[in-house]
Amino acid sequence: MLHSSAIGAGPVRRGVIPKKEPSVKRILFAAAGLLSLAGAVNAATLDDVKARGALTCGVTQGLPGFSNPNDKNEWSGLDVDFCRAIAAAIFNDPTKVKFTPLSAKDRFTALTSGAIDVLSRNTTWTMSRDTTLGFNFAGVMYYDGQGFLIRKTVGLKSAKELQEASICVQQGTSNELNVGDYFRANNMKYREVIAFATIDETVKAYESGRCDVFTSDRSQLASVRLKLTNPADHVLLPETISKEPLGPLVRHGDDQWFDLVKWTYFALLNAEELGITQKNVDEQVNSQNPDIKRLLGTDGKYGEGIGLTPDWVVRIVKATGNYGEIYDRNVGPATPLAIERGLNNLWTKGGIQYAPPVR
């Protein structure tokens, strides 16, 4: 049990998750006035992007390793690089993308309204989001799961010891539901769950002692830990309590755009599997390997099916590298996050990242 001496003071709601996350019905109601506009936007997203001269990509408000701006408003991260790959495929220029920072609670309205062309913002693929909300997930850029971050001084070794804990969470995420499910399944009770509008507010509340534990996707917790005053004073508990397949999504209604975004993701994976890198892609264009020839556009015109040129994958890999290069550059073992590939390795290397072939 966690005692009050180990935690921050503050208002308590015993055993109740604050109802701050918009329900599916509320989101649909809020978006109802935008549906006719969204339908028009959906009809030819690629044409709109080309006419505008840039892709509009929804990202987080700042999550190191995934989408994070520096003091010059230059964005970097795994989700950012995916949008740059799309821009490279369309324009042969990865800089032709505008990044729109969005909170968890605002991200879906922005996509529905047409304010953004694609949402690439550590968003969990769920059935309700994929169907009821009218979105298509293009793939899983990062296989993740929810965990718990806690101070070392509390001395806990397992999430099963979080009885009577106060828990910080970001509102508008699937994490609120998951934590309630986990406690019920394990016949445990928390003191309160406190939801905050933004990730920065949640981090500040946790670090100030407002709550005992911060729960989110494990990748996000690894990133958040770097923002704390003394990262070494905090540790992730070993349990992973949910499946969180994180990936980019687009609106229903424009199959060509959905295919373009989806096959950009598959192209990154296929390039890594075939050994095509940012450094050797020009050399690989001369390969006699049939799979490489089809992927790089020297055999067939597969790019035309998604409104692109035959060399669309060459453009992507030159701009961003393959999936493994993007992963290693942003979140891999050599970065401050130091996250091993694990499930995010290729299927040929013990992971579950797998792409259909280009043929």
What do these coordinates show?
The protein contains 14 helices and 14 strands. By secondary structure, the protein is α/β, with parallel strands linked by helices. The chain folds into 3 domains: 4-20 and 145-243, 3-Layer(aba) Sandwich (D-Maltodextrin-Binding Protein, domain 2), CATH 3.40.190.10; 24-143, D-Maltodextrin-Binding Protein, domain 2 (3-Layer(aba) Sandwich); 254-349, no CATH class. The chain has a 5-stranded mixed beta sheet with strand order 10-9-11-8-12, with helices on both faces. Helix 7 (175-185) links the parallel strand 9 and strand 10 (192-196). Helix 4 (78-91) packs across helix 10 and helix 4 (78-91) runs antiparallel to helix 13. The longest helix has 19 residues, at 255-273. It comes from Xanthobacter dioxanivorans. Pfam families: SBP_bac_3 (PF00497). Residues 54-284 form the Solute-binding protein family 3/N-terminal domain. This is Amino acid ABC transporter substrate-binding protein.
